[in-house]
């Protein structure tokens, strides 16, 4: 279902500058319509964010592609996602062969995605809670992807990265953020790159925004 629309979406992403074969292949294969309410299926393969209820969104496919490319995911990498949302980003990472851990602070979304992953046969470890403090029991990670906008870089997450691990996180104010790509060189040193102009819902938690 919707194969043609997915092919068109991939062509659109290539035109916008996405080059990674693995991420493009995952976007071609993962059925985005399964991650949104049925009333919006006709818009599933537009390159836009869409509402998923609870004032949250499934990210724009271009944003998913940029963030995933920046993580430089390899098969078998252990990746932590903060903000499971619809589960689409986690499904993309899983399709690329990553070992995925994902945390969501909205209990209803967490339950919904647990059932969705069971139904679709997607393997990822899901947790309900505040992702700004990471998942220490299963750390360190090769990569961390934060899919909500943060006022700062949560230092607990940096500590849960392996040396040479990468973190991708939108950082800024409540309306606009820069995508910050961090590489942890060692315990005392990180390198940073920035891609400007993204807009995410808020990362709310101990090391994020304090209020809804
Ligand atoms: N990655 C998602 C997807 O593929 O559909 C999109 C995520 S949506 C833009 C942001 C999500 O982050 C929301 O579901 C929100 O509830 C969640 N969130 C916000 N603060 C969080 C936190 N501290 N820990 C975990 N999840 C959080």
Question: How widely separated are the two ends?
Answer: 37 Å
Radius of gyration: 16 Å
Biggest sheet overview: 7 strands, mixed
Cα shape: globular
The number of distinct β-strands equals 9
> What share of the residues lie within helices?
25-40%
CATH superfamily: Vaccinia Virus protein VP39
Count the DSSP helices: 6
Mean pLDDT: 97
What's the helix-strand series? HHEEHEHEHEEHEEE
Could you please say which CATH topology applies here?
Answer: Rossmann fold
Low-confidence stretches: none
- β-strand percent reads 25-35%
CATH-level-2 architecture: 3-Layer(aba) Sandwich
Hetero groups in this structure are: S-adenosylmethionine
What is the strand arrangement across the widest sheet?
A: 5-4-3-6-7-8-9
The count of domains is: 1
- Sheet/helix structural class: alpha/beta
Question: What would CATH call the class?
Answer: Alpha Beta
